[in-house]
Each structure stands twice: as C-alpha cells, then as structure tokens.
From TrEMBL:
Species in which this protein is naturally found: Candidatus Rhodoblastus alkanivorans
Signal peptide boundaries: none
Domain of life: Bacteria
One Pfam family it belongs to: DsrC
Record-stated family: Belongs to the DsrC/TusE family.
Localization terms from the record: Cytoplasm
Protein name (database record): TusE/DsrC/DsvC family sulfur relay protein
Length: 112
C-alpha cells in the first residue's frame, strides 16, 4: 500500500502506517486525516504531537488510549474521557492517531 502525495509515492504497511517515519510531515498528516474524513484541529495536533514525542523520545513507546487520556487531561487542564478522544479519532485514538502521526503501529490489544 502507499499514498500518492505531492507527486511522490509514500510507502506504507498493509494497514496504512508509514514504512519510513522520515516521510512524515504535518502536510502528510493532514492528507491522511482527510482520507479518514478528519479535519485536524488544535486538539488533534496535541494528540499527534504527544504520540510523536512518546515514540521518538521515549524508546518507541506507543501509548494506549488510557495513557493518552491522562496526558491530554494534564495538557488541557480538564478531565478528558474516552469519548472525547474517540470524537477526535473515531477508529481508535492510539491506532488511528498513531497512523496519522506517522509512528509505528501499536501491537497491543485494546485501547483502554
């Protein structure tokens, strides 16, 4: 599988995750999100930035939904629940969010 983006073919895994994390850009993230019917807003970017930071600065960690909830509650200064994150990334905040963020696919089962 691949994405045709800005005149280049971006290689992905069979499930749509980038084969080479170096191919990621904010513009590519917006493109992938649009393919999923998502218009990225500030809260989406908070989650994406968090997922990228955890992956690239924390030994390739791929946080589950519970961990994302805690991090966004701290960041946003309010109680965040699972529904809030699923409103942003309906197919699963950790998996769909991670795919848009350009990190490797999480191998864990369940999101909460």
């Amino acid at each position: 599988m691949s994405y045709e983006f800005q005149g280049k073919e971006i290689q992905t895994t069979a499930t749509g995750y980038l084969s080479d994390p170096e191919d990621w850009s904010r513009e590519l993230a917006e493109y992938v999100a649009k393919l999923d019917g998502i218009e990225l807003g500030p809260r989406h970017w908070d989650v994406i930035d968090y997922l990228r930071e955890e992956y690239f600065e924390n030994n390739q960690s791929t946080p589950n939904t519970r961990t994302i909830i805690k991090a966004m509650s701290d960041k946003w200064g309010e109680r965040v629940d699972q529904k809030t994150l699923y409103d942003l990334f309906p197919l699963d905040p950790s998996k769909q969010g991670g795919r848009i963020a350009g990190v490797a696919e999480s191998r864990r089962k369940g999101g909460y």
